[in-house]
Amino acid sequence: MASLTGASVASSYTSLLKLNGNTDSLVAGNGSNAIQVVDGDGTGSSLYLNTDNIGIGMSPSSRLSIKANGDSSAVLDIHGRSSDDFAIVSFKENASQTVKGQIKVDGSDNMIFRSGPSTDRLTISSAGVVELTSGQLKFPASQNASSDANTLDDYEEGDWSPVVSDGTNNATMHGAIGGRYTKVGNKVTVTAYILVTSLGSVSGAIRVTGLPFAVADSNRNYSAFAVSSCEGLNITAGHSMNLTAWKGTSYAKVWLWDSATGGSEMTGAELSADGGFMISGSYLTT
Fold first, then answer.
1. Domain boundary at 97, 132, 167, which?
2. Model pTM greater than 0.70?
3. Domain, as residue range, for 166
4. pLDDT tens-digit readout, 100-142
5. Across-strand partners of 98?
C-alpha cells in the first residue's frame, strides 16, 4: 500500500490515484486544506482534510462540516452496534471524557434526550408523543405570542391583589388575604378572598381592580365570576351577587341581583365597611 508523507504532500500539489476502480484526483496542499480528494470526473463531493478539521462536500469551517447533496438522501447515518441495537450520540467533557449528555434512538424507534450518561429527560415516541421525564415545561417570563390557533404559547401562575374601588377611590383591604391565578395560553383563571377593612371615600358602584391580565377588548369576552361565600354585607335577604370581568380593562364589575327583571351594580354601602366575599372564575386575555 502506497502512503504519502508530510514531505511528499508538501512537495506535490496534485497526484492521481486509482480509488474503487475509478481514477480520482488527490489534491495535496490546496489552500488551507492539507489534502483534498475529488472525483476524477468532477461530479462527486470533495473530501477535505487538514490538521484539525474534516469537510465533506465543503471546505470545513468547524471540526466536522458536511454539505448535503441536492437529493433527498441523508446527510449523516449513525448505525447501532448490531441489527437490534440502537444508536447513541454522546457529548463529552474534553479533559475527563465525562459524558455530559446523550441522544439515542432505542429499539422501539423512540428518540431519547439525556443529561449525563443515563438520565432520560425528554422522549419523543415513534408515534410522535412527547414525554417530559421531569414533568416540567418552562415558558419564558415574557410571552412569545402566537397567532396559530393550535399553538400553546404561555403558562404562568402567581398571586394577585384584588382591591375594591369605585373607579376613583380605593377601599382598604385586609392585608393577609388576596388571590391566586393560573394563565394557560390566553385563558386566565382566578380565585380570591376579598375582604374590606375600611371603605374610606368609596361610594356608588364598586368594582374589583387588579386582575393579573387585562380582559380582551371584545364584546365576546365578558366573563362571569361566581361568588361562593359572603360576609358582612348590607343587602336584602334573598338577593345575590356575582362579578363580570369587563372587556378591555383589568377589573370586574360587582353585580347585585336585586329585582325580578335583572340586577344593578353593587354599591359601597351595600358591601359595607367590613364586607367580604370569595370568588372564582375565568376570563380571556389577549
1. 132
2. yes
3. 156-284
4. 999 988 888 899 999 999 899 999 999 999 999 988 999 999 9
5. none
